[in-house]
Amino acid sequence: MAAMFSQNPLMNGPNYSFNQTPTTAAGGNKEHSFYPYTDNGGSTLAISGVDFTIVAGDTRSTSGYNINTRYAPKVFKIGGTTSSQDDATLVLSVVGFAADGEALKERLDAIVKMYRYQHGKPMSVKACAQRLSTILYGKRFFPYYVTAILGGLDEEGKGAIYSYDPVGSYEREQCRAAGAAASLIMPFLDNQVNFKNQYIPGSGEGHALQEREKIPLPRSEVEDLVKDAFDSAVERHIEVGDGLQMMIITKDGIEEIYKPLKRD
Amino acid sequence: MNHLPQAWGRPRDDVYGAYDGSYLQSHGPNQHTQQPIVTGTSVIALKFQDGVVIAADNLASYGSLARFTDVKRLRKFAGTSVVGFGGDVSDMQYLDRLLNSLDIEEAYSSSGHSLNAKNLHTYLSKVLYKRRSDFNPLWNQLLVAGLDDDKKPFLASADLLGTTFSAPSLATGFGAHLAQPLLRKVAPDEMAASKLSKEQALAAVKESMKVLFYRDARSLDKYSIAIITADGIDLKEDEKLENQSWAFADQIRGYGTQVN
Fold first, then answer.
1. Which of A159, A203, B218, B236 has its CA 20 to 30 A from that of A37?
2. In chain B, what are the domains?
3. Whole-structure pTM over 0.95, yes or no?
4. Per residue in B41-67, pLDDT tens?
5. Which PANTHER family match (chain A) (predicted)?
6. Residue A37 located in a structural domain
7. A61: contact with B, CB 8 A cutoff
């Protein structure tokens, strides 16, 4: 199970995520037994702003050193009234084992659609976030092998991001990176979104240093940050690349942007 | 009346003898597929401007023994789609029966067949995902080729874990290592694939089958190839590889210093 948490502090530094899954069943010297999970690589990232949320993911799907396809989305609109999801207000990203990710997405989408049917109103991010947690925990002993991030706008119209572990532990956050290159992207976000370790120039020495004021970033800057984060992840992680898919949620709806990434 | 509910509705012991519970229990644990036995190797496929080309050789191996040399691994569905199977052959035959019964069920509707390749792929991937979630997998990787809802070429993959993906060219097993790079040279993206002619696609797939026969120890020079377009399926199940290059081999002597 330790292999599930790719953020495991015991491992010093980033690894190829497919090396973390056990290749043989525990405790057996069987030659070949069925292991129901695999890792399809890739990385996702979400950042919230004052009146918007951006959820992004690369579009590469891998198995081992092979590229399955250069375009397999991991970011999905959730809970629209039609299959085209034109009027959806929520976005889910899943990274890890793609088949579980697909199954989780379809289940959440069906549940959010049923909520609208039963209650006559769209589901709030907060309610959806709690529901997603119970879905994940429902498979506590045969988990969905995915790291999910849910994005939307809260009741006040502010950007909201909820991040999850594979068994449903969740938290609302300002920003979060997940997947193969999470350990490469997250420290960059700490510094560039939350201004960690940044101080006001000339404000003093040692403890007298004053922290840089935390101000929410404008949308154009966040879009650039996302692109930069993925461009550098593509350089340093072999499972990330090919394309960048961004969903930008505002009060006017969800805008989808695709940008090419390096394909090597 | 007997007040014990367990006995209600059960044949009376004094008339029929003691209840024989052995029919309810199997002896030993349930057997699930733990490993493939008789296997098929790569399936390769490539989209072109108005359809898809898909190919697989006619071999079913029993480990390293080339046991069955006339096994058709491309199966037609409803005259509109082709499924190419890699992996366990008995599981392939099970899936083929499943698809036949699905085909018959679909034919009951008055409007005739309505399932296209995209619908078929969704169906198969759900079957495979359910089976892996029951820890009883169907040990196959399969490619589904045909047309989608908009009559555009459709090609997608599904495997024993329920993993699915789609691309302009796809290959399973050894083909993912050897054929896929060659096919991607011809069709690096959807745009390029939509400009390929049928002849170009056919040539690229045939060339890839040859490379697979050179380098995959579980492959055969006899293969099946199918072209799926809006006009229907053109399936040839008894093709031979042509123009193999072996003439250079008599120039090679020893493993290093040997001259003659």
1. B218
2. 38-240 (3.60.20.10)
3. no
4. 999 999 999 999 999 999 999 999 999
5. METALLOPROTEASE TLDD (PTHR32194), PROTEASOME SUBUNIT BETA TYPE-1 (PTHR32194:SF2)
6. no
7. yes
